[in-house]
Amino acid sequence: MRHLVRSVWTEPAAPDPPRPRGRDAALVAALLALTALEVALRPDVPHRLIWLVVAALILPTLLWRRTRPLPAVLVAFGLSATVTVLLGGEQSDLTTLGALLLLPYALFRWGSGRDVVLGAAIVLTGAAIGTVGSGLPAADAAGGFTVLFAAAALGLANRYRAGAKARELDQVKLLERERLARDLHDTVAHHVSAIAVRAQAGLATAPTRPDAATDALRVIEAEAARTLTEMRAIVRALRAGRAELEPNPGIGELSRLARPAGDGPAVEVEIAGPAGELPPALGAAVYRLAQESVTNALRHARAATRVRVRVLVDDSTVRLSVRDDGEHRPAAPPGLGRLGMSERAALFGGSCASGPAAGRGWAVTAVLPREVAP
């Protein structure tokens, strides 16, 4: 039990809480206007001027409910409970103050463990003072606390749902880095092997043919420069696990993806530009992006007859386009495959986007620079 309490108390706040935005200010302004209108039109509001001032003081706390949930709860529920006690238990019963349920929701959604514990105590104390002071029937009090607990539970559920999604994204990134490390392994091994062979040849021929040794040094210099270029990409990838010593497909193997129509749509592959001059790691990345895109199209494209893969290579970039002619399907949150494609493109300093194409079908477009910045 002690460990459970300690783990709750030390739970960090949820990352990246949204800052107050224009719509938050618009919400507070609208609530203040509605409160003033309600105070003016409802004849059963006790101490209307006092509660109007209280509402004007506590409603702006909604602006900081995400970034400062504990102070917002303390001001709103503490001030409301204090005024209720000073007025002998009379509450305003203002409908607009129901928006304060956003505060316990935000407390459990964005606050740290310590904020949640202290804030929950403040909320329950304030709600109990209001319930006892106003003499609410037991059924009404139970309904009010049920709504309060529901708001807190909803915030807690969304908190852990967001945490699970973040962990899933981290897992995708880690898996994609491992795959990329395997793709890059053969490239670097090739360059280092070439350097070793040339160095051995230079040492063997140096006593009788000094010119051959000089040529070997030039080749070694070129291979070392290429190796450094590839190592820049390796630094960008976090390798997890052991790389497999097997050849990796490159841009020259894109023809493997082509297939005739039959059990599914036909796949057409077109390559334009000097694709043979691409670094092997970059070619492997293009192949993996195209492979994942074609797999997704064959799996999800409805009533498609053709999937077209087009690669355009120019002096500075490699552009990949994969498009099917199936029925339009609505854009959905990115799955693991699409997240992995975006991560692979980002590791090479490029981008990858996917979504409904103009007219029919689904399109995936990736743009990768030929030279990865260090």
Write up this protein.
The chain has helices spanning 2-9, 22-41, 48-58, 69-86, 102-110, 113-134, 138-205, 210-235, 280-300, 336-347; strands at 266-272, 306-313, 317-324, 351-356, 362-369. With 374 residues, it is α+β, with helices and mostly antiparallel strands. It has a 5-stranded mixed β-sheet with strand order 1-2-3-5-4. The two termini are 50 Å apart. 30% of the residues are buried. The model is unreliable at 237-246 (pLDDT under 50).
List keywords for this structure.
single chain; 374 residues; alpha+beta; five-stranded mixed sheet; 10 helices; 57% helix; 10% strand; elongated
Category from helices, strands and their pairing: alpha+beta
The percentage helix is 55-70%
Sequence of secondary-structure elements: HHHHHHHHEHEEHEE
Q: How many strands appear in the DSSP assignment?
A: 5
As laid out across the biggest beta sheet, the strand order is 1-2-3-5-4
**Strand fraction:** 5-15%
Short description:
The protein has ten helices and five strands. By secondary structure, it is an alpha+beta fold.
SSE diagram, text form:
Blueprint: H1 2-9, H2 22-41, H3 48-58, H4 69-86, H5 102-110, H6 113-134, H7 138-205, H8 210-235, E1 266-272, H9 280-300, E2 306-313, E3 317-324, H10 336-347, E4 351-356, E5 362-369
Parallel strand pairs: 1-2
Antiparallel strand pairs: 2-3, 3-5, 4-5
Helix pairs in contact: 2-3, 4-5, 4-6, 5-7, 7-8, 7-9, 7-10, 9-10
